[in-house]
C-alpha cells in the first residue's frame, strides 16, 4: 500500500532529476511544479480514501507531512515568477531587484511573527484547532491549486506552514543569487573540499543519516533526507544522494537494520565503562 512517506520519497527522487530534463530553467521549474502537483493529488486521494486512524495522525499529517510537498509547489511557482520578471531587469538593477524581493519575504516573516514562531518552535498547544479539518474556510490562494480544493484535504494552518516553509526556501534562493551578483568570480569556482573523508561503508552513512532524519534532530525535524545527505556529502567527501532513497529497503532486508548504529552504541558503552573503572 502506498504511504505518504513513499510519495514524498518518490517526489524528492524525481526532483533530483530536473536538471536532466532540460537545460532550460523554466522547463526545469515547470517539471518540478508538475511533479509537486501530482504528489499532492496522490496524497489527497489517499487521505480521502483512507482517512486517518485518529486525531493525532490527522494532526501529524497536516502539520508535518502535507506541508513538505505543498511548500515545494509554492516555492517552485514563486521561483518561476521571480525568474520571469528577472528577464526584464537589466544587469545593473538586478541586485536591487533581488533585494526588494528579499525585503518582501522578511516583511512577511515579521508581520506573521506569531505564526512563524509557532512553526519554528514546534509548538503544539493549538494543534487540534490548527491541524484538523473543517475549522476554517479554504483561503483563496489555496483554491488556485486545484489539487488542494477539497475540504477533506485541508486544515486552517497547513497552508500557513507551507507558505512559511516556501518563503524560507526563497530567502535562501535569493540570498544565493545576491551573493553570486556581489562575487561573480566565485560563481563557477568549486567549493573548497573538506579535509575529512568517510572511510566506513556507504550503508553505514545511510544508517546514520536516516537515524538523524527519523529522530527529527535537524531543524526541528524539518530537514529533508536530501538536505541531510547533501550536508553529509560536503562534510565527508562522499557521494550519497544518488541511492539515498533505496537505502531503507536494503536496511530492512538485513538481519539487523541498524547494524552500524548498534555498533556505535556498543563502542560508546564500552568506552564509558572503561572510564568508570
Structure description:
It comes from Maribellus comscasis. This is Tetracycline regulation of excision, RteC. The protein is globular and about 70 Å long. The model is unreliable at 142-148 (pLDDT under 50). The longest helix is centred in the N-terminal third of the chain and has 32 residues, at 55-86. The protein has helices spanning 4-15, 18-21, 25-50, 55-86, 94-111, 113-120, 127-130, 140-143, 158-182, 202-215, 225-236, 247-253, 259-276. The chain has two domains: 4-189, no CATH class; 190-277, no CATH class. Helix 5 (94-111) packs antiparallel against helix 9 (158-182). With 277 residues, it is an all-alpha fold.
Beta-strand content bin:
under 5%
Largest pleated sheet: none
- Report the average pLDDT across residues: 84
Tally of structural domains: 2
**Count of helical segments?**
13
Q: Strand-and-helix sequence, N→C? A: HHHHHHHHHHHHH
* Shape, per Cα inertia axes: globular
| CA distance, first residue to last residue | 52 Å
Radius of gyration from the alpha-carbon trace, in angstroms: 21 Å
Which segments are poorly predicted (pLDDT under 50) over 5 or more consecutive residues? 142-148
- Helix percent band: 55-70%
The total strand number stands at: 0
Structural class: mainly alpha
Task: Produce a short descriptive summary.
With 277 residues, the protein is mainly alpha-helical. It folds into two domains: 4-189, no CATH class; 190-277, no CATH class.
Amino acid at each position: 500500500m502506498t504511504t505518504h512517506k513513499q510519495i514524498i520519497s518518490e517526489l524528492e527522487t524525481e526532483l533530483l532529476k530536473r536538471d536532466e530534463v532540460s537545460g532550460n530553467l523554466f522547463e526545469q521549474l515547470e517539471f518540478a511544479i508538475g511533479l509537486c502537483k501530482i504528489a499532492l493529488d496522490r496524497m489527497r486521494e489517499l487521505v480521502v480514501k483512507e482517512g486517518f486512524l485518529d486525531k493525532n495522525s490527522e494532526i501529524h499529517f497536516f502539520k508535518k507531512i502535507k506541508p513538505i510537498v505543498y511548500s515545494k509547489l509554492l516555492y517552485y511557482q514563486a521561483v518561476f515568477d521571480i525568474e520571469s520578471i528577472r528577464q526584464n531587469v537589466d544587469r545593473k538593477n538586478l541586485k536591487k531587484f533581488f533585494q526588494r524581493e528579499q525585503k518582501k519575504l522578511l516583511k512577511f516573516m515579521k508581520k506573521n511573527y506569531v505564526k512563524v514562531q509557532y512553526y519554528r518552535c514546534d509548538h503544539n498547544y493549538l494543534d487540534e484547532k490548527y491541524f484538523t479539518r473543517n475549522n476554517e474556510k479554504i483561503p483563496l490562494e489555496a483554491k488556485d491549486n486545484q489539487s488542494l480544493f477539497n475540504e477533506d484535504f485541508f486544515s486552517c494552518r497547513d497552508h500557513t506552514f507551507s507558505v512559511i516553509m516556501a518563503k524560507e526556501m526563497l530567502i535562501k534562493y535569493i540570498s544565493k543569487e545576491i551573493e553570486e551578483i556581489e562575487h561573480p568570480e566565485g560563481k563557477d569556482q568549486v567549493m573548497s573540499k573538506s579535509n575529512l573523508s568517510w572511510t566506513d561503508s556507504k550503508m553505514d552513512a545511510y544508517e546514520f543519516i536516516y537515524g538523524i532524519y527519523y529522530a527529527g534532530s535537524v531543524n526541528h525535524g524539518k530537514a529533508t533526507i536530501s538536505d541531510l545527505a547533501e550536508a553529509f556529502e560536503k562534510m565527508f567527501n562522499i557521494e550519497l544522494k544518488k541511492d539515498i532513497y533505496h537505502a531503507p529497503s536494503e536496511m530492512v532486508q538485513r538481519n539487523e537494520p541498524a547494524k552500524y548504529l548498534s555498533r556505535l552504541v556498543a563502542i560508546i558503552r564500552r568506552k564509558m565503562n572503561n572510564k568508570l573503572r
